[in-house]
Amino acid sequence: AQKVTQAQTKISVVEKEDVTLDCVYETRDTTYYLFWYKQPPSGELVFLIRRNSFDEQNEISGRYSWNFQKSTSSFNFTITASQVVDSAVYFCALAQYVKSNQFYFGTGTSLTVIP
Amino acid sequence: DGGITQSPKYLFRKEGQNVTLSCEQNLNHDAMYWYRQDPGQGLRLIYYSQIVNDFQKGDIAEGYSVSREKKESFPLTVTSAQKNPTAFYLCASNPGTGHQPQHFGDGTRLSIL
């Protein structure tokens, strides 16, 4: 069975603090894909990053960075020097290789950045 | 600009009434999806379609129906059999190959009168 767990329901940080959003997944597949999406108050989900199971390199994009560790089945997302515009709900998702069009989403983490 | 358009943004349903949510995309994507979002439950898949005139049930298809007569359009009907329809509904699409990210519309919020 495929499952994505985001244990942090709500997080509040003060502007300029760093914050890490946790994502733990379960799958028996050896090939799979992981995603992070941002959902601002407007409602639309915005794609942030995709990572396949063979690529464990960490990635940095501006203030965003992602740490993928297969050994712990985790794909954590860190925002450095948080800003008010980062306030949103963030979702982690898993896609199988075999049934590639079925995405499994976590329950999301609501991040509030306080000015 | 290419994207996904959902309408209406807000919708109200009376008891016993069927309502249809519209989803149109101009991204030339083969696959389209409908999700339901409830507070604290993340996104749950209702239906998806990988090609025209074909669609599959997701995890919570009961009380919903869809059609895919055109590549660009994937309307969702919430039937009177869906006893708890109040939720935020999101439509998405992707090329259907290569595990491409799904692109999402702005959503429709459905409430019961």
Describe the sheet with the most strands of chain B.
Answer: 7 strands, mixed
- With helices defined by DSSP (H or I, 4 residues minimum), what is the helix count of chain B? 0
Number of strands of chain A: 12
**Series of H and E elements of chain B:** EEEEEEEEEEE
Question: In angstroms, what is the radius of gyration of chain B?
Answer: 13 Å
User: How many distinct beta strands of chain B?
Assistant: 11
Instruction: Give helix % range of chain A.
Output: under 10%
Would you give an account of this structure?
The complex is a heterodimer of chains A (115) and B (113). Chain A is mainly beta and 115 residues long. Chain A is built from no helices and 12 strands. In chain A, strands 2, 5, 6, 10, 11 and 12 form a 6-stranded mixed β-sheet that branches. A 4-stranded antiparallel β-sheet of chain A has the order 3-9-8-7, with no helix packed on it. In chain A, a hairpin with a 6-residue loop joins strand 5 and strand 6 (46-52). Chain B has no helices and 11 strands. Chain B has strands at 4-7, 10-13, 19-25, 31-37, 43-51, 54-57, 64-66, 76-78, 87-94, 103-104, 108-112. In chain B, strand 9 and strand 10 (103-104) form a beta hairpin. The radius of gyration of chain B is 13 Å and the shape is globular. The mean pLDDT of chain B is 92.
Based on the model shown, name its key terms.
heterodimer; A: 115 residues; mainly beta; six-stranded mixed β-sheet; four-stranded antiparallel β-sheet; globular; B: 113 residues; 11 strands; 50% strand
Structure summarized in a few sentences:
The complex is a heterodimer of chains A (115) and B (113). Chain A is mainly β.
Question: What's the layout of helices and strands?
Answer:
The complex is a heterodimer of chains A (115) and B (113).
Chain A: E1 3-5, E2 10-14, E3 19-21, E4 24-26, E5 32-39, E6 46-52, E7 59-61, E8 64-69, E9 74-79, E10 88-96, E11 103-105, E12 109-114
Parallel strand pairs in A: 2-12
Antiparallel strand pairs in A: 1-4, 3-9, 5-6, 5-10, 7-8, 8-9, 10-11, 10-12
Chain B: E1 4-7, E2 10-13, E3 19-25, E4 31-37, E5 43-51, E6 54-57, E7 64-66, E8 76-78, E9 87-94, E10 103-104, E11 108-112
Parallel strand pairs in B: 2-11
Antiparallel strand pairs in B: 1-3, 3-8, 4-5, 4-9, 5-6, 7-8, 9-10, 9-11
